[in-house]
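We emphasize that the prediction below concerns an isolated chain of 258 residues; any contacts that depend on oligomerization or on bound cofactors are therefore not represented. The input was used exactly as deposited, without trimming of termini.
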Amino acid sequence: MSSATTDEIENKIREIRRDLADAAGRIDGALQDAVDKIFSQWYVPDFLKDRALNKAQEASSEFRRIPPKVDPTVELILREINDYKAVSTTAPQYCAVDFAAAADSVGHDQLGPNGDDWESGNTQSYRNAVHALPSKLQNLRDAVEDICEIMTDLKGDYDSYFTGVLVAVISLAIAIAGLVVAIVGLVLAIPSGGAGLVVAIVSLVVAVVGALVAAIAFATLTDMDAARATAAQRLRSAASSVRNSHWPLEPSMGSTGW
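Result of the prediction step, given as a token string:
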């Protein structure tokens, strides 16, 4: 998955927030105007007036349930996107670490002493330390390669996660956009009044309920906590491997003893 997917998710989230704010600013006024219009018309039967009032109250009440479902999940997704971007940047850096030059520098005969080219009280300690370097370097190399794999796997988990998120945000964006359209339809129906206005209020209720259902489904999105916990445990293991592989102690003899 490229950043195009997360970019699309962020765009849809902006649409959701915009349309929710638009709906929030218009719905109660539109409903009140519609109810007032119906009640001002003497020829509208009382049962239709009561139905219009009840449905208007239902629409307003159900709409208020949407933001508490949407807002926390949106914030979670945006945090997940930031984490994903950090992982996407970090993983290649570990994968690109090249140990070839370091391995060559501690290879056979690259570090003295060799044979009897020099002797001192620290010769054997130095030789032991030099001989230990390749295995210690390999341990570090293995750990960095493990971290590369861990971060790459975590990025793959994010890729799968955001595939599902994109479907959810598109569905929610469509539902909320439909709600805005229903509000506009109600406003346009107000001048005519009568039974047609009652139908418009009922249609708005249907749109609100549809948006609420989408919001509830949206709020049940899984998070990345389990995948991150697994990656964290693997990283701790890699770090422990390096930590527990002690580098040779420095020679104990002072420089004057060499």
